[in-house]
Amino acid sequence: MSVETEFDVRFRGVTKRFGGVVAVDDLDLDVRKGEFLSLLGSSGCGKTTSLRMIAGFEQPTSGSILIGDDDAVGVPPYRRDVNTVFQHYALFPHMTVLDNVAYGLKQRGVEKAERRKRAQAALDLVHLEGREGRKPRELSGGQQQRVALARALVMEPRVLLLDEPLGALDQQLRKDMQVELKRIQQEVGITFVYVTHDQGEAMSMSDRIAVMCNGKIEQLDAPEVVYDRPSSAFVAGFIGEMNTMAGTVRGVSGGVATIDVASGTVAAPVDGVHPSGDVLVGIRPEKVRVVADLDGPNRVAATVVTRLQLGSQIQLVAEMADGTTLTAVVPRAGTDADVDDLVPGDHIHLSWSASAPILLAA
Amino acid sequence: MNDSATRRRLLTGWGILVLLFLYLPIAVVIAYSFNANEAVSNWTGFTLDWFTRAWETPRYQKALGLSLKIAVLNAIIATLLGTAAALALGRARSKWKVPFSVLVFLTLVVPEIVIAVASRIFFVKAHEGFSFFPSLGWKTILMAHVVWSSAVVVLIVRSRFTGMGSSLEEASFDLGAGPVKTFVQVTLPRLLPAIVAGALLSFTMSFDNYVLSVFTASGDNETWPMAVFNDVRFGVTPAVNAISTVMFLVVAAGVAGAMWFVTRKSGEPADGRG
Q1: The complex's ipTM?
Q2: Is A103 within 8 Å of B269 when comparing Cβ atoms?
Q3: How many domains are there within chain A?
Q4: DSSP assignment, residue A361?
Q5: 3-state SS track over A133-160
Q6: Domain containing B63 — which CATH number?
Q7: Are A224 and A254 found together in one domain?
Q8: pLDDT higher than threshold 90 for residue A339
Q9: Residues of B in contact with A84 (CB under 8 A)
Q10: Of A235, A275, A234, nearest to A253 (Cα)?
């Protein structure tokens, strides 16, 4: 595949310090041409600083950044082939919507008729026809967001940078815009680098997710890989919910590791490296099921502690014999037992499939 | 409930008293500038004679001309200097930022008379030492006014500049506009209300300034406020009232204009370019 060899942005050993604080720590990152890459992490993890270094608003303390084949270190933002959709949109309040969108083309010296035409096309792309003559403050938050998007897209940059662009929108609008952003990205084929702290956003739109923590990338992979095979307890906890149990590997045979944990033993599939010593075993709550009895592998007895209605699902927190808890998220119409009637204090049996347990580095 | 109503009534009454105290003298002056009687305190009828009489006095005309010249030049120079300083102070990360701000704003806090005396001594000495430095005259009056007014411009423009944040400028850079283009197309239009307000206030403050002007003028210069004061010493005439009325209107218009520009909602300064 040619995409494997073509990169739009490359970070090599990039470090950024603010005074004594290390915001980005010796970071290596390759952004593939045409992909939707999310930088995911909590605030202060270095994701926004990384984005701002691609945009040119910050310069790395050390290391190199390539945009395309050009060294970008020291190049000011106005000479880079990248554009940004800002968190709070940063629309020019004294200009109309059309003038906002045409602003970048004007700086490039595109003549007036042509830039109006292209700005109009960009507004059509984000479904904002008929709002050209308005001032930004006359638009709703969602519409302003679309103007900001159009203003950056019209430049047809090599890379589009998005800094938590949906952060200020309400829940429903956010969902709609996720679908919309993905559609636009596929339509224009521009590389998107998307910064967010919302794992749901990252999961739904990205081709790849870089989970960041303390200025480093913990894991960089496709969303389903990050979800199914998180590389660390941090990633497992950040992307979705995860039951974790500390234990010791007793032995490995036939691609299955047997691990002693407080509540008994757990069998976890292993691929590649054979684990040994102290490990963490993780099981996603939605992989845990309520079953009728203890006849079979991967089953434990537990007592319901809390039961939470999640709409189409129910979240159960249950305590095992040794006092550790296990969280299960099960469909309301339970197949193995009727979970609708469970109340705290009920004794139940929990089970999970053989492939559910994930080994995490302790 | 009754308590709060009483309190509100008392407060309103107090407010009216304060306003009366402030503006009643001015109202009297304005009213008597239309008084037909030569004696200031006897109202005998309405006339506009005093305005024409004052207007036709050559000394007043000269003084008015001088005041306008100084006020306009002062507004231009102070606005340029003050805006430049405000921009530098707004974004600078230099260690001189705080000391420089303190120096600028000290100008506003130090009693005017102190600055006036210091300016006079400085201007006289400077002229003695360097022949290119102007002797006391309208130029030194202007310089003294500029020092004071620029500080006001810095205060107004800087607060809007820092309130603006840097994200709009970043957006402009991001879209390919260099520092100069960004300043002209984004920063300046956003600052314009504050700049205009600063210019209007500078004009007003220079136009009605007495203390600085007296100390930095030579015997030949007489600004309008100086002319008024010189005449008042020999007794108030309705002509002086007429002058005062005109000055009050000019100053009030200037301040009102400045307030209007400062409080204008973000967004509407003339864009100029499409």
Answers
A1: 0.83
A2: no
A3: 2
A4: E
A5: CCCHHHCCHHHHHHHHHHHHHCCCCCEE
A6: 1.10.3720.10
A7: no
A8: no
A9: 170-171, 174
A10: A275
